[in-house]
């Protein structure tokens, strides 16, 4: 069964398939942190549906909520009509929103994926401001559809102006810390203000409070507040992409709660659907410039996903799982720090809450695999957006092959982890927020063994 399915799907599915390549397993049963393969092997799943499963696999409250809808005879497909199931979801969602937004929030249900909500957010801010440009950050990930893709990663696109995202390790300015964040903020300010930069005022600026796919890079709160002030002063809507960071993942219900900022727009998906596909864009009411029908789509508001999502949001809130994530995540990060001390190939460990990363490097090599490039490239920015580069320390080159080896060694030890980062060199942990102390120890023991095997 196991080999046959792997062989057939490998032959029939697009070469673009991703997770299936690195993880040749055939899950047939799952509960909580554990997945069981068709070959009978059991795995601790720290990929969690790419950060979707806040409560782990098949949590009883999620299953019960879905069964309740199924047994009630309610329509499973209801377009965007008003239903009791949707009413309960929106009520629970609004209860959790940052206070500044909750009082004046509007929600638009989007196509089922995060990328659909990103597209909707761009469309909304363009309609609301009459401007077209979008500003996004280096290393960002916002999705795989056209505009979301343009705003992601290193891809250059005429409509997107790329801004430096502050990071300590591999700081683009070679300084890290508060100075690196200050330089990144100044760069943003110069692109917003300097007429010589050639960048028109954008329709919106999109920000991940912690970059996930980009390699688990938490933005400093002071920098986030600074970007909020810069955008507010210039009436540029700030779009917080909380697709991955939302619902307690980073140790606050929404990651923007750490800095206390109120975004104008929030893009939400993944965990809000309690493991089923659901995506929304939430925004302040004065941005609600859309005419009826201006944003449509057949699969907006899946009833089962809303029910699963309501149960998940309520469970995370009532059981204070964000606090649990903050506490357990901090302890796990300390243990990851021990790995950095012990193994030269572990260049950095970082994260926030239960969104953790461990970066593999090649300590023998002397130069960067890819020198950091000028951030102005491709933005139309001229001399106005003066590079602020400062010479400084450079970490050893990223080691994507080592990271892939750690991922394989983890899998051999029954641990599923994901890779990320612009070089693919960051091992990422996104365990369910229900993770216990005992489970976290099992996860870290297996990871430590895997690193040891690779270093040896
Ligand atoms: N934004 C962020 C921050 C994400 O992490 C992702 C998915 N990893 C997306 C958007 C896109 O979501 P989806 O894959 O559901 O389209």
UniProtKB/TrEMBL annotation:
Keyword Nucleus: no
Pfam families cross-referenced by the UniProt entry: Aminotran_3
Lineage: Bacteria, Bacillati, Actinomycetota, Actinomycetes, Kitasatosporales
Entries under PROSITE patterns matching the protein: AA_TRANSFER_CLASS_3 (PS00600)
This enzyme's EC code(s): 2.6.1.76
Known cofactor(s): pyridoxal 5'-phosphate
Pathway where this protein functions: Amine and polyamine biosynthesis; ectoine biosynthesis; L-ectoine from L-aspartate 4-semialdehyde: step 1/3
Protein name: Diaminobutyrate--2-oxoglutarate transaminase
Family indicated by similarity: Belongs to the class-III pyridoxal-phosphate-dependent aminotransferase family.
InterPro entries: Aminotrans_3, Aminotrans_3_PPA_site, Dat, PyrdxlP-dep_Trfase, PyrdxlP-dep_Trfase_major, PyrdxlP-dep_Trfase_small
Keywords (A to Z) from UniProt: Aminotransferase, Pyridoxal phosphate, Transferase
